[in-house]
Amino acid sequence: MIKITLPDGTVKEYSKGSTPMEIAKSISEGLARNVISAKYKDTIVETVTPLNEDGSLTLYTWNDDEGKKAFWHSSSHIVAQALEELFPGAKLTIGPAIENGFYYDVDFGEHSVSEKDFPAIEKRALEIARGKHDFKMHPVTKADALERYRSQGNEFKVELIENLEDGSITFCDHDTFTDLCRGGHIPNTGIVKAIKILNVAGAYWRGDENNKQLTRVYGISFPKQKELTEYLQLLEEAKKRDHRKLGRELELFTFSQKVGQGLPLWLPKGAALRERLEQFLKKAQKKAGYEMVVTPHIGQKELYVTSGHYEKYGADSFQPIHTPKEDEEFLLKPMNCPHHCEIYNARPFSYRELPKRYAEFGTVYRYEQSGELHGLTRVRGFTQDDAHIFCTHDQLDAEFKNVIDLSLYVLGSLGFDNFKAQVSVRDLDTPEKYIGSVENWEKAEHAIINAAKAKGLDFVIESGEAAFYGPKLDFMVKDALGRNWQLGTIQVDYNLPERFDLTYKGSDNELHRPVMIHRAPFGSMERFIALLLEHTGGNFPLWLTPEQAIVLPVSEKHEKYAEKVLKSLENHEIRALIDNRNETVGKKIREAEMNKTPFMLIVGESEEEHNTVAIRRHGGEDLGSIGIQDFVDLVAKEINSTLKSFKN
Ligand SMILES: [Zn+2]
Ligand SMILES: [Zn+2]
């Protein structure tokens, strides 16, 4: 018999050689029907793998990330079989599951695959799936594995196998298809009920542009047709909300090939919006006891050697700038932290003066391969709403609470109400991986968990996910389309205070090391605005949106009155425009709708006579004619309902 420990801690005995599926059946038939993947002693196994020793077992269904991964990886085998049949001579390379679906990289040789081929691929793949073929893993010798792919002329698989150790190589069969694979499959192909090929793109073998270019076939699959339909609807909606498209339409930002890839240029409306976001946070930070600092965009190479960033990122970053005469070396700033450590080092501190909280909207530069760049979410230059807190160990608890308050304020004011937190702590089995004393780690982890509880956060604790230099808390925000974005990390750091020899004088008159906390509620201005655009579809909260109102005179006759309305809105600090072009009101309304202007104020004969404005909300709601002051009050009320003041 073997002892199997289940996730809830219960230990059950099974006969040696029992499979995860058999164990699922012993728990309940319902569970067995839904189990598609399993993890045994921290390794993903097949649901039919015989278990021969004591160990912990987790069973996964479609509702688990690991379940989806197995489902999509298995689907890539099915699609690979279809591709091999439909495009004879196609050489398969690798086919992993990804966040949403899977891909397979294929060398199609003389064939080229495009959208018109998708229906045939989907049709054949579904036929294969319906055959309910079991996925069967079996070991193979290195010689046999090499022989198989050499005879097929598949140099890619040969290269993969050459790097594997004999005795560790496995193949996976289903139907008539065989693939080199480490495992992690669903029980059989029949569970896959819907398959969609999403697109094809070029991809270099092993991501190296000196290698052959392959075709990456992207697909997704589901256990129900209905789920595929819903997913495709979501994709459509995501396309409409793509921040690159909205950013162009709303004239917020642009890119120029002349300036360079991955370097966003903020247009006036976008710059003003950023400014409002910055002011919003600065105001709250001031109340939370932060002080603003300013540091340069470059720093001596030595600075990053001290911080350790050079060792870690040097080769993969922008290369140093050399001064012409002195032979100095400077790096574009990849992080603000080293600069802030030197600000702390500018004078000695006593424990009575801590915490010090230095904040900066600091622009940093990081090299990203051109193929990795994406709108505002993957760029080469971006501005962090960065701050570093230097405090004593005893202050960690209060500081964490303070930062969580600020983060919650930011999320609330911007309409994010669906979020979770993740607390990343040490892996207690590998203490050698972490720097700093065990006592301090315990204190810090306790402080974070304590603060998360005290602030009522919905959080999970992930052990082993902490950085080597300290535990952290991340906010994960779910956007309107149900996608997860990681925002606002609060990171404890024992490493930089050590490397920069930061000290403070304690009550014992001795020098002590402060703890450092890195935090950025937005993360980066660029990525945050991208998220806001996609979350709101461009309909920003009223306090933040570019123009809050547009005045639309119905004819030239009412222009004067429209100007008067505009003036009084401006006097009340409402951001408004006037559209006095010689166009029909219908056309003006359509354009204002396109621009997502929240309020359209239509003025004609009756409005002028009664000193009112006829209000139409973005989206079409007619609010009738009201006095100008009433409109001003309406705007103020709506703003106050989302934008509360911080810590009043
Ligand atoms: Zn596989
Ligand atoms: Zn930092």
TrEMBL record:
<dbReference type="InterPro" id="IPR012675">
    <property type="entry name" value="Beta-grasp_dom_sf"/>
</dbReference>
<protein>
    <recommendedName>
        <fullName>Threonine--tRNA ligase</fullName>
        <ecNumber>6.1.1.3</ecNumber>
    </recommendedName>
</protein>
<feature type="domain" description="Aminoacyl-transfer RNA synthetases class-II family profile">
    <location>
        <begin position="242"/>
        <end position="541"/>
    </location>
</feature>
<dbReference type="InterPro" id="IPR004154">
    <property type="entry name" value="Anticodon-bd"/>
</dbReference>
<feature type="binding site">
    <location>
        <position position="337"/>
    </location>
    <ligand>
        <name>Zn(2+)</name>
    </ligand>
</feature>
<comment type="similarity">
    <text>Belongs to the class-II aminoacyl-tRNA synthetase family.</text>
</comment>
<dbReference type="InterPro" id="IPR045864">
    <property type="entry name" value="aa-tRNA-synth_II/BPL/LPL"/>
</dbReference>
<dbReference type="InterPro" id="IPR047246">
    <property type="entry name" value="ThrRS_anticodon"/>
</dbReference>
<dbReference type="Pfam" id="PF00587">
    <property type="entry name" value="tRNA-synt_2b"/>
</dbReference>
<dbReference type="InterPro" id="IPR012676">
    <property type="entry name" value="TGS-like"/>
</dbReference>
<keyword id="KW-0479">Metal-binding</keyword>
<feature type="binding site">
    <location>
        <position position="518"/>
    </location>
    <ligand>
        <name>Zn(2+)</name>
    </ligand>
</feature>
<dbReference type="InterPro" id="IPR036621">
    <property type="entry name" value="Anticodon-bd_dom_sf"/>
</dbReference>
<dbReference type="Pfam" id="PF02824">
    <property type="entry name" value="TGS"/>
</dbReference>
<keyword id="KW-0547">Nucleotide-binding</keyword>
<feature type="domain" description="TGS">
    <location>
        <begin position="1"/>
        <end position="61"/>
    </location>
</feature>
<dbReference type="InterPro" id="IPR004095">
    <property type="entry name" value="TGS"/>
</dbReference>
<dbReference type="Pfam" id="PF03129">
    <property type="entry name" value="HGTP_anticodon"/>
</dbReference>
<keyword id="KW-0694">RNA-binding</keyword>
<dbReference type="InterPro" id="IPR006195">
    <property type="entry name" value="aa-tRNA-synth_II"/>
</dbReference>
<dbReference type="GO" id="GO:0004829">
    <property type="term" value="F:threonine-tRNA ligase activity"/>
</dbReference>
<comment type="subunit">
    <text>Homodimer.</text>
</comment>
<keyword id="KW-0862">Zinc</keyword>
<dbReference type="Pfam" id="PF07973">
    <property type="entry name" value="tRNA_SAD"/>
</dbReference>
<keyword id="KW-0436">Ligase</keyword>
<dbReference type="InterPro" id="IPR002320">
    <property type="entry name" value="Thr-tRNA-ligase_IIa"/>
</dbReference>
<keyword id="KW-0820">tRNA-binding</keyword>
<keyword id="KW-0963">Cytoplasm</keyword>
<keyword id="KW-0648">Protein biosynthesis</keyword>
<dbReference type="InterPro" id="IPR018163">
    <property type="entry name" value="Thr/Ala-tRNA-synth_IIc_edit"/>
</dbReference>
<dbReference type="InterPro" id="IPR033728">
    <property type="entry name" value="ThrRS_core"/>
</dbReference>
<dbReference type="InterPro" id="IPR012947">
    <property type="entry name" value="tRNA_SAD"/>
</dbReference>
<feature type="binding site">
    <location>
        <position position="388"/>
    </location>
    <ligand>
        <name>Zn(2+)</name>
    </ligand>
</feature>
<keyword id="KW-0067">ATP-binding</keyword>
<keyword id="KW-0030">Aminoacyl-tRNA synthetase</keyword>
<dbReference type="InterPro" id="IPR002314">
    <property type="entry name" value="aa-tRNA-synt_IIb"/>
</dbReference>
